[in-house]
């Protein structure tokens, strides 16, 4: 009889042992009326490793972090009502509840796995240690400026206590110069005849409105804006700059339809003001991407880099290469690991259900045109030579190209656990396939009405040892017979030579399609790029950058896009809090941390002309849906926009005031489910004091054991808690439509929950 998996209860738990070490366990409980004997496999899709001392179960990795546990000879049948705790290595679990979502599924059988029954266990919320007792101090090594203090309510309160200016006007991103010239006046809308203004101000057009005049000045960099009670004058160097001026003008209007006379002079410090979104690991479709384009444009960001491929998926339909999306965009369970490849395995917390998600050709052309209308350029990234598992699996299934050396005896493992995710750089088909993909992508841009200007080819995280045992590579003209693979120095020399060979071949391949295209790579490829190549390097390293890395990029006269993981990785948690989602390997990245970031100073870059700009990254291992996408991005993206437009931060008080009193409401109008900061709270005597990060927001509370709603009383500063056993507080938006996590204070002791 197959075991009914829905009666199997799973929970990740943590404890501290006598030596004050954090230990993690997978608790398995049998709630069925039959035993869990020996013929079963418990699959997971986010990495699960039993402790070395555990002998009752064995782990098998199928692909990446997808694998299963199965019983060994030491396993004792789990009887009805019994439970067992399997000690596990805890790097993916401690203080990371989002990572406890493992995508568990149970295969059980009587005779063979092929005849087994697949079912889903019941997964309880993880029971994690108190974050306040065990902060993640290891981040200090990578990001010493990062706040690694646990985000308790009192800690939050103390941070929020900084006084806000009585701000009357603030723009995001902050303009080069803004001078107030008079008192606010009421206006009834605008009167203009300009298509770029209409894209932004259409809702503000009124009969008899204030005239808006636009003058184009060919040699003007940026725009100027003059507001008086009689007219608005815009001088602009381009239609794009006029569009930017319109967004500035929108922000000058108060919620009471009051306008402040002023003079604005503005231009950007950076050419590249970008956002990278990984749509391979978890897919996010056209509607979501268009919404993000609108928000980027509102704050003058201009490049959206889409990671269409990674080990876990290929997400863009390519004409003539249907296998890339037929297989590479499909995930499902298969018990037959040796059977024909028809899909990828589940990954990053996904369960066994089939998922087939990608962007079609027509959808992509539509996205390109939509983004272009908002002055946002879409840059496609597909990863080569590494992070290519989805590509390799798809192409191997069709057999149309040879991109893997079947006799390659190299042993290597990627950071994500893949051993089969790097194309062979010595095989001619690698470049034929790349050319076919690039040609199709270039055709999509042509269909949209413009040329392909940029392409990003990844190049990051090629694992050590790759290609070295490939007969094709050893027979290539670049291989030196004096190399001894037993010597680490020779292994490094051979690897670099192969990387240089690949870089030249792939750059030549791209330029044969479009000689003027600029090619992006992650910084791992920088030392392999030939001189005078039309490339730029995206540097993602952390605050404690490896010695000489940035200098070597600039000395080779390569343009740099700053993507510093300590400040610009938006998949990091906002703070060190037990319930804050994210993947905190580099930092905790608050909105203020981004706003206060000084990109050139952080990496001690002296040649500002060598920097193309900034780019924030959102890797989607833990970004499961639209709500998660918005939570991670907003409002942090507004701070990114501010720093990408003006490299030196201005007043945080001004920024916070603009955000809280005006721009969160604008994000709501764009249907963006942004994150609201939970309130800071402290208790002094019989007074509970509360505050919040941004002015314009409301703290509401409930003393009746329920979470506060928009109808609950507000708390402006403090409240007498005499006789109150418990109080629950949350931050609410001005509209009351959105709220933060709930802060619970009971017995006048901060619980640290939100």
Walkthrough of the structure:
With about 750 residues, the chain is of the alpha/beta class. The chain has three domains: about 5-130, Sandwich (Immunoglobulin-like); about 270-645, TIM Barrel, CATH 3.20.20; about 680-750, Immunoglobulin-like. Helices cover about 25% and strands about 20% of the residues. It has 17 helices and 36 strands. The model is unreliable at about 750-754 (pLDDT under 50).
Write the layout of secondary structure elements.
Layout: E1 8-16, E2 22-30, E3 40-44, E4 57-63, E5 66-71, E6 83-88, E7 105-108, E8 117-119, E9 122-123, H1 153-160, E10 177-180, E11 185-186, E12 190-191, H2 195-201, E13 210-216, E14 223-227, E15 232-236, H3 239-251, E16 258-259, E17 262-266, E18 272-278, H4 286-298, E19 303-307, E20 309-310, E21 313-314, H5 323-326, E22 330-331, E23 355-356, H6 361-373, E24 377-384, H7 389-398, H8 428-448, E25 454-458, H9 471-474, H10 488-513, E26 518-522, E27 535-539, H11 549-555, E28 559-562, H12 565-568, H13 591-595, H14 599-602, E29 611-618, H15 626-633, H16 636-645, H17 652-669, E30 680-684, E31 687-691, E32 698-702, E33 718-720, E34 726-732, E35 743-746, E36 749-750
Parallel strand pairs: 1-9, 12-13, 13-15, 18-19, 18-29, 19-24, 24-25, 25-26, 26-27, 27-28, 28-29
Antiparallel strand pairs: 1-2, 2-6, 3-5, 3-7, 4-5, 7-8, 10-17, 11-16, 14-15, 14-17, 20-21, 22-23, 30-31, 31-33, 32-34, 34-35, 35-36
